[in-house]
Amino acid sequence: MDRTADILIPPETSWLADPDSQAVCAVLTRAGFRALFVGGCVRNALLGRADSDIDIATDALPEKVMDLAAAAGLKAVPTGIDHGTVTVVAGGKPFEITTFRRDVETDGRRAVVAFSTDIAEDARRRDFTMNALYATPDGRVVDPLGGLPDLHARRIRFIENADARIKEDYLRTLRFFRFFAWYGDAQAGFDAEALDAITQNLRGLETLSAERVGAEMRKFLAAPDPAFALAGMRQTGALGVILPGADDRLVGLVVDFEERLGLHPDWQTRLLALGGQDVVRRLRLSRAEAKALQTLMDALEQMTSAEEVAYRHGQDAGVSLLLMRAALAEAPPDADALDGLRRAAEAIFPVKAADLMPVFEGPALGAQLATLERAWIASRFTASKEDLLSRL
Predict the structure, then answer these.
(1) Is the peptide bond before 137 cis (omega within 30 degrees of 0)?
(2) pTM for the complete prediction?
(3) In DSSP terms, which residues pair with 293 in a beta bridge?
(4) What is the pLDDT of residue 80?
């Protein structure tokens, strides 16, 4: 029997009030099947957080979902039909509908599933209690496993047996710390059973692909303040497995300085502060991400000014360097520095090659332009074209 909680999703919640999401649910319920919003969208609505992905669970088999959607004139795409997922498009928006499932076999990376009509079985194959919450189309919360108290306490707890949940998918170790960074209560600390299970299953992290680890770490480091969760990750040994040589001690300072300057969290700045060996390969960074990281590492080593980095690589790069230097010095940056970085990013070198010709040509022309540009940067971008040419 369902455990329907005496609680409602706020009626103004966008996905609950959306006529398109309601239309998709009605396709199922009119035919006698269940349609339940599930997971992140329910969790975030109850916490008053920004919308998460809208997922719908049902007891209808995938082929039946396809047939019902087609009969209602809606486009249905079998995006993951072998695993029970059909994407139904309504009002130009995609909605993922997944049949209730139970795990038949897992190997730490993927699962073999069987379809089910039991919502409790579907809930048990999820990771954390706060993610095993459902809501009916009229907003009534369904809590098959009693996860609401954990949600309200901001307690990140694995469903039933932490060791078993981790062995089903070792990425859940990283998800535990990521969810703690986003939703956990640092004052209450970590769930002891979870930490013990994580410590006992560290070797499983070595089986994960770099793509999965990298995607998880991007989300983790983008949390408003991941410092406490990173410290826990280090203490369990998980951080050392996925990023050998990483040191989380500077991340807290970077976060503090971001907040003081009114900056949005930036996962790449936090990654720079975290460091580690072979970061590009271990997190499978894109070429652009790897280039940006190397640019900042070179600037730190060569003592390049943040303003020069902003001029050459953009304001965001200059801000990252400013924060990193401040963290290393353990001294907050001057708020006025942000204006300087903005001006530097917008600055345009006033001297053109034509201004130096025909006196200078070939390599000599390039060398002279570089010399004048360095002088212009040293003037904090204030020297005029006339001032610079007068130095010739």
Answers:
(1) no
(2) 0.91
(3) none
(4) 87
